């Protein structure tokens, strides 16, 4: 039987490690940004911590500009141990792998004008190999369905998350990362229905992030098929766990 695993994260904003309430991140309205935690530690502190404990599958997410140096600091600290996301394209994906990323995480590049481009995903997969690609299908709920959201979860795309879309994507990537943006950073509990559905739909490793409090609950709901990222709930990010 598969078993849910903990996968850590490093979220970067303006070069700092932060825990952000997902739907509040909007570059056009920076005053609306809500954070649960802003670290006084360097990004490399967290990369080294995960390395020491061999916490594999960790993702580093660059939330906007001004984070490249911080991201490279993390990758230098643990070469081959971290996935990198945020602004990944066909033009720079290989460079990030060469810089030490285990895999690259891609979202917005696959949705020009908020419309899914299978051609872009196929080109990226052919260039760097599906084994090096994580597709981020972070989403927001609209009219009883989950829709992929890009541009820091502010722009809704034309892709609904369902069994068919995940099957299509899985032909060209090796993992999924899914932030439930409506509950991200709120510490009020997971999107139970989404986790249950993902457990039925996914056929490749999948990591869920968003208001997680209990690993065993997700293990049960997904039959061990969905891995977890804890953020704001952890004491290293100001939480209590």
Give me the Rg, rounded. Answer: 16 Å
Largest sheet geometry: 10 strands, mixed
Q: Assign an overall shape.
A: globular
| Average pLDDT over all residues | 87
User: What is the percentage of strand-forming residues?
Assistant: 25-35%
Explained architecture:
The protein is of the alpha/beta class and 241 residues long. 26% of the residues lie in helices and 26% in strands. A ten-stranded mixed beta sheet has the order 3-2-1-4-5-6-7-11-12-13. It has a three-stranded antiparallel beta sheet with strand order 8-9-10, with no helix packed on it. The chain starts with 8 loop residues before the first strand and ends in a 12-residue tail after the last strand. The mean pLDDT is 87.
What's the gist of this structure?
This protein has helices spanning 43-52, 68-77, 93-98, 118-128, 163-170, 192-201, 215-221, and strands spanning 9-13, 16-20, 35-38, 58-62, 82-85, 101-106, 133-136, 139-142, 145-150, 155-160, 175-179, 206-209, 226-229.
What are the key terms here?
His6/HISN3, 3-stranded antiparallel sheet, alpha/beta, isomerase, histidine biosynthesis, EC 5.3.1.16
